[in-house]
Fold each of these.
Amino acid sequence: MLFFHEISLDFGDISVLFLLIFIQEFQSFTDLEFSKERTITCIDWHPTVKGVVAVSVGERLSFDDRVDNAHKIIMTPSLILIWSFSDPIHPQVNSLL
């Protein structure tokens, strides 16, 4: 959820308006077996089933390393984890693509 908060400061003949934006975590998904020491490479909601999300994870690399090794990364199978809001600790399905 996003929360907005406006702060107005008055310094005599100068007024400043700040807009603060806060993000509150609604749900987190955890998997220490398949995604530990990996980075999320893509995330997408299931197109027809509500509350189901698919996440692909890959080797943890910097952006420059990922670009330099793109030819290897494209040919390496990716791990896809599928989670449901009903069980955010255990992925429902995991597969190599």
Note: The helical segments are 63-68, 70-75.
Amino acid sequence: MLDKKAKQKIISKFKIHETDTGSSQVQIAILTEEIKQLTEHLKKHKHDHSSRRGLLKKVSERRRLLKYLQKEDKEAFNELAKALKLRIAKKMIEDEDARQKIEDEILAKQELKAEQAEEAENERAEAEDHKNKEDEE
């Protein structure tokens, strides 16, 4: 658990505006520091399973906040990841890039199918018009 002074120092370093205490960036920075402290504690006390559970909760909460920040403000996400030296952020960026690539491929395939369907419809309409003209003659 962080003491008040350490928490205030983190808040002042990562705050977005003057009265900011709860933005995603601040929460992620605080969680990161708590995770570091718990990790050090667990290196000394390997059988402290309740602290291990708390660590896992904090890690998952930080991951959720990072995902949210990445989705809402990529630039702030990248700056924060760099400032906190987060390894997980690199993986999240790679995952997001892969997801975006797959999404783009799916959209391209859908557009191609739509174009093919439109061409087939135009050919069918032309064939029908041609048949109607022949019937009139």
Note: The mean pLDDT is 90.
Amino acid sequence: MTASWRNRKAFLVIASVLACTAVAVSVSLAYPTPVPSPELGADWQCRRSVGIVTTCHRVSHVAPASHRRLVPTASMLQA
């Protein structure tokens, strides 16, 4: 009788640890942390997920919409 309770407790402990690990991994995937990368320069933005996976992408500098000049198109001229 005690052996079945021990097995059940062991199963519950293992299942709890696996569930907590799955939650921790999914949270770290959902919210990656920014990583400074001076080797790549200011044009790159890097993020680390799950503590080991680092992804980098080039940041394009876009002019603010308030500084852009509106260029009329053919459909705008007809209206």
Note: Residues 1-30 form one domain.
